[in-house]
Design goal:
This protein is an alpha/beta fold. The protein has helices at residues 14-26, 37-46, 63-72, 90-98, 111-142, 153-170, 184-191, 193-210, 235-252, 282-298, and strands at residues 6-10, 30-34, 51-55, 81-85, 103-106, 174-181, 217-222, 225-231, 267-274, 304-306.
Length: 313
């Protein structure tokens, strides 16, 4: 019989452990048994179960305290806990729910009741886990550019706004690089849109390779334009990254026969750096980087330019 769930049973009475383990194992559940609260905490932390059956009265650490500790740990707080007790008083049940229990089974056990409650809470737990994963995937997709697999414009805006506020508090520099594929329209006209899409993916791959720090973000800003947000990065650090990106792009040796600056694919880049202030906004940083990008194009493309001053909006 295949295992239908991973259940941790906690009780200081061997007879109770044996009975519960047997009836659950017969139904295909995978069970582990421990005889104390401290052992329960170790077992839950080492290999988190899908469900815990927890006796209340045990020596050393009672079930209420065990439940409180499990619910206080981010790694185990979602595990459903069913309390086991010979006490049938309302106050005991209320306390069990107050510390985080999802159900309460009184002793002596009724096999049908135990199995029904276990099945109900395992089903609910799995549904919640699946829903959580689905929500995480949805959030990832909402923030992802489907073609390049980089962050999209929405994610760029949110990330820049978040880092702006954080670095305004810390008074640390925030750098932004805007980069544009040189003569990309001619590339599309010459090689076709499928080849243009492949080109965008190649550039995105280079950016993903070069942008390594967890707080940094490479985004598709729009069309053939990309953005790289660099928190806590001075101008020198942004220049170093821009140069590294240019080297990697040139090493691709992606043929671009209709480019006016090189027989191969190239990028123009604009760099802006500032320490966020209350009288400015992220739009000022974007405008400065965009102006620097324009200067790089005016200087002949296949280069980077620096924003000397912020743009008045």
């Amino acid at each position: 019989m295949t295992c239908d769930g991973n259940i941790l049973i906690v009780d200081d009475k061997p007879d109770n452990l044996r009975f519960l383990s047997e009836i659950l194992t017969q139904q295909g559940y995978d069970t582990r048994t421990v005889i104390s609260g401290r052992m329960a905490l170790m077992a839950a932390e080492t290999a988190p179960p899908e469900l815990i059956l927890l006796d209340i009265f045990m020596p050393g650490m009672d079930g209420y305290e065990v439940c409180h500790k499990i619910k206080s740990d981010p790694n185990t707080c979602d595990i459903p806990i069913i309390f086991l007790s010979a006490l049938d008083d309302v106050s005991d049940k209320v306390r069990a729910f107050e510390v985080g229990g999802v159900d309460y089974i009184t002793k002596p056990f009724e096999t049908g009741e135990v199995l029904a409650r276990v099945k109900t809470h395992l089903t609910r737990y799995r549904f919640q886990q699946e829903l959580q994963l689905a929500n995480q995937e949805l959030k990832r997709l909402v923030n992802l550019d489907s073609l390049t697999q980089l962050a999209n414009r929405r994610c760029f805006n949110e990330h820049l706004e978040q880092e702006w506020r954080r670095l305004m508090r810390d008074q640390q520099p925030l750098s932004l690089i805007l980069c544009d594929i040189d003569f990309f329209k001619q590339y599309n006209d010459t090689y076709g849109h499928p080849a243009g899409d492949a080109c965008l993916r190649q550039v995105a791959m280079v950016l993903q390779i070069c942008v390594k720090r967890p707080a940094d973000l490479a985004s598709r800003y729009g069309g053939e334009e990309f953005a790289i947000t660099l928190p806590k990065t001075p101008r020198s650090g942004a220049i170093e990254l821009a140069q590294r990106i240019q080297v990697e792009i040139r090493q691709l040796r992606q043929v671009h026969a209709t480019s006016s600056v090189s027989p191969y694919l190239t990028l123009s880049l604009g760099i802006a750096t500032l320490i966020p202030q209350g009288d400015r906004s992220p739009d000022h940083l974007i405008a400065a980087a965009d102006q620097a990008l324009y200067q790089a194009k005016q200087a002949g493309r296949d280069c980077f330019a620096l924003a000397d001053t912020l743009i008045d909006l």
